[in-house]
Amino acid sequence: MRLPRSVETADVAGKRVLVRADLNVPLADGRVADDTRIRAARPTLRWLLDHGAAEVAVCSHLGRPQSDADRTRFAMAPVAERLRSLLPDGRVRVLENTRFDPRETANDPGFARELARGMDVYVNDAFGSAHRAHSSTEAVAHLLPAYAGFLLLDELEHLGRLLGEVERPFVLVAGGAKVDDKLAVLENLGGRADAVLIGGKMAEQVRVANPLSFPVELPLDVVAASSFDADAETQVVDVDAVPDGWLGLDIGPRTARVFAAAVRGARTIFWNGPMGVFEWERFAAGTRAVAEAVADADAYSVVGGGDSVRAIQELGLADRVSWVSTGGGASLELLAGVELPGVAAIPEA
């Protein structure tokens, strides 16, 4: 895999540095609800400060602003406040939401020039946005000496291990609602895996019309519900015995045992997507069983995708996983074999 040059090779003493970070965090009541991504940005920012950067200007998008009203909802002020509390250094300033300017997503060179104005060095540490060819992730990298931050490099290293020779058995676990979003990853990794376990709504889609070119393991039983509701009537049934009009909202206990056994016996694991509607406790057992098996396995384990990452963190198991990816769509594209624009724009190491 092509690796971009590291920020560690940059001369930043006395320089003004533009950093593209991934500070796209959830907000609640005008405050940061989860600062995981802000904390993940700190090592690169700390390194720049420790090595004498005169100024560090941090830019990021936040949400998907569509209207003038969103300029208040998605303003960077709460993020900047939280970053200041974690990294109290007057040399750091947070720029306003890059997506407030429509030129950002158009990868407009004029907007890139505005971001680069007065800056001496550019560092991209936003792996979660590296699959987007936007002004702050791609165009600006051609205007300043460009380097990769520590988080970006860590993501490339850890995810890249799945694309090379892996220790076997290699088990791939996929779930969630949409097979289309993960089809390219499944095709790229699944044919090399020793077992591909599919749960969640994705399992229903694959069962009806399997678009994959290799065998997969689907649920044997499900927790069926009379409606899509946290308090709906439920029963555990075989997959071919779901009552008409009912929904499978979690893998059943038999499937959970089979999936967990396969995961625990693996030496390499990639898990993306929950096994059911884990946000509701009555339908969380399947996802919990997989998460615990990933944590228990004597394996190189990678968890990616917002919902599976959320599950592993809420269960307190993240520190027992080899790598928890912050990447979302970027992780999927990288593992599908796609070159990421934000990475390609940085010179090689």
TrEMBL record:
It comes from the Bacteria. ATP binds at K182, G248, E279, G305, G306, D307, S308. One of its GO terms (molecular function) is ATP binding. The keyword tRNA processing does not apply. It catalyses: (2R)-3-phosphoglycerate + ATP = (2R)-3-phospho-glyceroyl phosphate + ADP. InterPro entries: Phosphoglycerate_kinase, Phosphoglycerate_kinase_CS, Phosphoglycerate_kinase_N, Phosphoglycerate_kinase_sf. Its main location: cytoplasm. GO terms for cellular component: cytosol. SUPFAM superfamilies: Phosphoglycerate kinase (SSF53748). It holds the Pfam family PGK. Pathway: Carbohydrate degradation; glycolysis; pyruvate from D-glyceraldehyde 3-phosphate: step 2/5. Belongs to the phosphoglycerate kinase family. Monomer. PANTHER family: PHOSPHOGLYCERATE KINASE, PHOSPHOGLYCERATE KINASE 1, CHLOROPLASTIC-RELATED. This is Phosphoglycerate kinase.
